[in-house]
Amino acid sequence: MQGYIYPNEFELQWGLLIVLYPYVTGLVAGAFILASLERVFNVKEVQPTYRLALLTALAFLLVAPLPLLGHLGHPERSYEIFLTPNRQSAMAMFGFVYAWYLAVVLLLEVWFEWRKDMVLWARQSTGVRRWIYTALTLGATDLSERALRFDDKAGRWITIIGIPSAFLLHGYVGFIFGSVKANPWWSSVLMPVVFLFSAIVSGIALVLILYMVTSLIRARPIDMRCLDKLATFLFYAIIVDVSLEALDFIHRLYESEESIEILAQMVESRLFISLIVLQLVLGTLVPLLLLGFFSPALRTTGRSRGSEELRRLVYLLGALLVEVGIFSIRWNVVVGGQLFSKSLRGLTVYKVELLGQEGLAMAAALLALPFFILWGLVTLLPPWPEAAPSESAAAPPAAPGAPAAPAVR
Amino acid sequence: MPDERRAAGADAAPPQGPPLDRRQFVQFALAACGTATPVLVALTRLPAARAQEATAAAGAYDPTEHLYGMGIDISRCIGCGRCVAACKAENDVPLDAHHFNTWVERYTITADGGVTVESPNGGMDGFPEPEADGTLRRTFFVPKLCNHCANAPCVQVCPVGATFTSPDGVVLVDEQYCIGCRYCIQACPYGVRWFHPTKRVAAKCTLCYHRLVKGKVPACVEVCPTGARIFGEVEHGATPLSRFLRFNDVQVLKPHLNTRPKVYYASLDGEVR
User: Fold this and answer.
1) With an 8 Å Cβ cutoff, is A358 touching chain B?
2) Helix, strand, coil proportions of chain A in percent (round to 5)?
3) Which residues pair with A3 in a beta bridge?
4) Contact A319, A311 (CB under 8 A)
5) What pairs with residue B73 in β-bridges?
6) A342 and B180 in contact by Cβ < 8 A?
7) CB pairs below 8 Å between A and B: how many?
8) Which of B162, B179, B183 is nearest to A74 (CA)?
9) What pLDDT shows up at residue B42?
10) Chain B contacts of A345, Cβ < 8 Å?
11) Could you tell me if A351 and A327 are in contact, meaning their C-beta atoms sit under 8 angstroms apart?
12) Residue B160 with chain A: CB contacts under 8 Å
């Protein structure tokens, strides 16, 4: 503690779990936006990551409410946010935004995308797997050309709706912080926009990492055109993100409101490692230099530098650093906003505990959980081209009069 | 058609017995109404009447008839901290140094304009002598508490509506309803809300609401030896608070945030935030 803080400010109210929440929803929104690049904006190079990005978004979205729930004083009353939402409260929107995104966007899109495969898997497998896939098709086993065309069209439209929804999902999280007028570190109209672009950065980086790691595990060659494209988009997204952050920073310095002194003190002391070192240097500048030099982003020829092997290593390193940087951004927003007193006269400290409900172990477990869920999803709905069911076996089982689709030819 | 009509009329007529004449019908109807009315009235009104009786038994407190606020005369506060102690005892506030509904700050301003603010243990045990090394310009005490804002950010942000402004202008928390998300604590510009360590809900000054409904003043006001805290109605004519508001230049804390506080400070220094 340094200077004067209000006595009630000694305890930090939003700790590590609340840092995790915007980080995780950011990954969801970012992964989805990446998926939409292929689906809506016709960036065909990133097609190999499309399905993986969707499942990644779903896995992380399923985990997103858990850190919130773990943080509540009375998690058993959390349903009240659905039953009696206070319409003036930004936070009361959580349940509706989340339910919309999960049910209307992600689950529907995944279903339409995998429906044909699920029908075929159901026909080709036996036992429990057959039952699972049959249940997942929800009885829609029509594989006629018309039905498949509808799947594709529906998927496209859901993605189009999904883009503003992803913006809403994560912009809303930014609004939760940006609308707190009591807190000069948070209160900024740019907050939702900064959150959004940092989300896109983190989502692209995550899918890039997952694509490389899963290719390695499957012992399949990595599509370098796809990887170069991902790196290029990652580079552009970081440029937009860092520009917005810089705008926010310069604006604050230039306006130089009454809070500027204490905020400057905070950045120089309490946030030095997490903001200057991790967020700015390691999480932003180094990846920018790496990607800018090696990826085709800045090359007029469209070709990239270095051998494929080197680029793969550089991209992986850059993406990992980006993830550390974005996590630091969330930390600096959430924890930073509580390290200075609202009396603007002093700074406090935050000590993360190792165990306990909001401790380091819990946060690590919650961050590992989406990868396990993703593993489950990938096992159930393999997104790889080699796992696609062979269509020759698509003949419906010889059940006379079965309402099966006219076989796909 | 005529046949049909006749047939319908025949169906509607009572098949047997002497028909009622008009006088008999009216008598019967009146008697029926006379009997049914009190029964119906009793059935529909009884619960409401019961509730009213209960209210009357509780002292007939009607929150719509009041609008409370507090005046604080900084020039009168001696920093004894009795208000802090009384509040902790009255409202079952944890006795540690990090949970307060009300606390007292001491501002020490030196000759070169330097400002030091302290509130050891919320001022509950009083303050040590300031170092009088000749550079002291002046010192003063500032009691702090919930401002019961008319435009309260904490009420706005509560996702479930567990914190609310009662009709008498007091910002309260329903502890049976609060989910413990702590957004209200973040939204309060004055740092007056805290998280109850055992109840696991948001907690704050209630202006001793349990005392108000009995016609008493808040505990901090009751014990203040110098009358630095003035409690009462904001709008009604002849009350101590309206007198205080009439004879002092008053200010509120952080007015630029448009929270419209109902705690009014007289002799407030510009250094106080």
Assistant:
1) no
2) 70, 0, 25
3) A346
4) no
5) B266
6) no
7) 127
8) B179
9) 58
10) 117, 273
11) no
12) 77, 80-81, 84-86, 92
Determine, for residues A13 and B192 on separate chains, whether the beta-carbon distance falls below 8 Å.
no
Considering only the top CATH level, what class is B66-101+145-266? alpha beta
Mutate one of B84, B101, B160 to test the A interface: name it (highest A CB count within 10 A). Answer: B160
A192 CA to chain B: closest CA distance, Å? 17
The answer to whether A357 contacts chain B (CB < 8 Å) is no
**Residue B82: which H helix or E strand, with range?**
helix B82-91
Closest Cβ–Cβ partner in A6, A11, A91 for B195: A11
B195 three-class SS:
strand
**pLDDT tens-digit readout, A124-181:** 998 999 999 999 999 999 999 999 999 999 999 999 999 999 899 889 999 999 999 9
Residue with structure tokens 């604590």? Answer: B185
Taking CB atoms and an 8 Å limit, are B160 and A75 in contact across chains?
Answer: no
- The residues, ordered by sequence, that sit 6+ positions from B235 with a Cβ below 8 Å of its Cβ are B67, B242
Query: Does A398 score more than 60 pLDDT?
Result: no
Contact A81 B188 (CB under 8 A): no
Q: pTM for the whole thing?
A: 0.87
- Give the distance, in angstroms, between the CA of residue A63 and the centroid of all CA atoms in the same chain: 11
Closest residue in chain B to residue A342, using alpha carbons only: B189
Which one of B88, B95, B157 makes the best mutation probe of the A interface by having the most chain A beta carbons within 10 Å? B157
Q: Is the pLDDT of residue A30 over 50?
A: yes
Q: Where are the domains of chain B?
A: 21-57, 66-101+145-266
Write the residue in A10, A88, A182 that is nearest to B257 by C-beta. A182
Q: Could you read off the pLDDT tens digit of each residue along chain B, which spans 273 residues?
A: 444 444 444 444 445 555 667 777 777 777 776 777 666 655 655 555 555 555 555 558 999 999 999 999 999 999 999 999 999 999 999 999 999 999 999 999 999 999 999 999 999 999 998 876 778 899 999 999 999 999 999 999 999 999 999 999 999 999 999 999 999 999 999 999 999 999 999 999 999 999 999 999 999 999 999 999 999 999 877 889 999 999 999 999 999 999 999 999 999 999 999
CA distance B174 to B178: 6
Cα separation, A292 vs A288, in Å, equals 6
Cβ pair A362, A68 in contact under 8 A: no
Place of tokens 């966007």: A105
pLDDT grade for A362, boundaries at 50, 70 and 90: very high
From B116, B118, B192, residue closest to A8, measured CB to CB: B192
Contact B178 A181 (CB under 8 A): no
Task: Please count the helices (runs of H) and the strands (runs of E) in chain A.
Answer: 15, 2
Q: Which helix (H) or strand (E) holds A3?
A: strand A2-3
From the list B205, B254, B248, the residue with the least C-alpha distance to B228 is B248
- For chain B, first and last CA: distance in Å? 91
Q: Specify the pLDDT at position A399.
A: 43
Closest chain A C-alpha to B74 CA, distance in angstroms: 18
Q: Tens digits of per-residue pLDDT, A90-128?
A: 999 888 899 999 988 999 999 999 999 999 999 999 899
- Nearest Cα residue to A258 out of A307, A317, A207, A187: A187
Q: Kindly list the residues from chain B whose CB atom is less than 8 angstroms away from the CB atom of residue A339.
A: none
Tell me the chain A residues in contact with residue B178 when contact means C-beta distances shorter than 8 Å: 73-74, 77
Whether A73 sits inside 8 A of B187 (CB atoms) is no
| pLDDT tens profile A295-351 | 988 887 766 678 899 999 999 999 999 999 999 999 999 999 999 999 999 999 999
